[in-house]
Design a protein that fits this description.
It is a single chain. Helix 7 crosses helix 8. The chain has one domain: Luciferase-like domain (TIM Barrel), CATH 3.20.20.30. It is an alpha/beta fold. Helix content is 44%, strand content 15%. Helix 2 links the parallel strand 1 and strand 2. This is FMNH2-dependent dimethyl sulfone monooxygenase. Pfam families: Bac_luciferase (PF00296).
Amino acid sequence: MSSAGSDRASYGPSFHEPLKFAYWVPNVSGGLVVSKIEQRTDWGYDYNVKLAQLAENNGFDYALSQVRYIASYGAAYQHESTAFSLALTLATERLKVIAAIHPGLWQPGVLAKWIATADQITGGRMAINVVSGWFKDEFTKLGEPWLEHGERYRRSEEFIRYVREIWTSDNAEFNGDFYNLHDFDLKPKPVITDSRPHPEIFMGGNSTDARGMGGRVTDWYFANGNTPEGIHEQIRDVTDVATVHGRIVKFGVNGFLIGRDTEAAARDVLREIVDKADREAVEGFGAAVKQAGQSTGDKKGMWQDSEFADLVQYNDGFRTGLIGTPEQIATRMIEYKKLGVNLFLLGFLHYHEDVEYFGREILPLVRELEAAELERV
């Protein structure tokens, strides 16, 4: 355990809040690993409706609908994220759904209107994940310009400021380098709830640009899978920026969860996933994301220190270490929570079975450990 995790004084007020859980919606074919291993997971609507209902009843707070616009790296088919997110909320009662969206492919006022309507329909259960973009072909093949790394994040920050302004102001104004908004009154606006003044805004990243943007404008910062030390560094950097701007940002961490009754059985599954990796697709994905990240000035872009086995799971989910028995996984999650992690964004091999296993075997242990830790401190 890192020194930060073992320091009782480092526990913030957020430690008293129960860990939240989200799952990657498999609305893209190929599952969550770039491997030829059997996956009893399907990208279709009917499968995902059942999954959303299972997740809602097994402790999940959020579902993140990913977005791909063209076939790439083992993902031949893709359902669009905002429409799919709305469909899943209509099939559930409490689950909040986060739609991944790309500035540059969405005009922010149109996106804001779409989400506001969906939020009204669902009683305040919509959110967005702003993706600055790593896949050049998605832009250029649609005829849109591909900006360099820092400019993509500058555009995303303007996008977020614009969307928040139009959601919360009656005579919205915004003047930027990429977007402008003039005396605009969006009606109806999104639902205001006790837990949020507008749909929550998530983003993911690792670079210095991403950390700065997260601290300045987002509600949540998603980190790729990483060690406790790697996550602690990002939480510190984003929090430092947020503090300067008088803000509070919450943190989510990506993790691919393999829970089995024995550690050996879980490790065997991981070994088979990697052994059966689609090497051509993994290497193509690795080349694309590393090229995108290397365009950063300090080479801190996402995936820059990822190895082949890490890239078999798109967002470095193996590196978080949620692989083993229920007791091992629950203990690992509490270690991250002590560092300031508020949420785990989880992927699975066989979604229906693994989500039920999580709710039955792992989540109760997490809650027991949370209660015990709070009593201890």
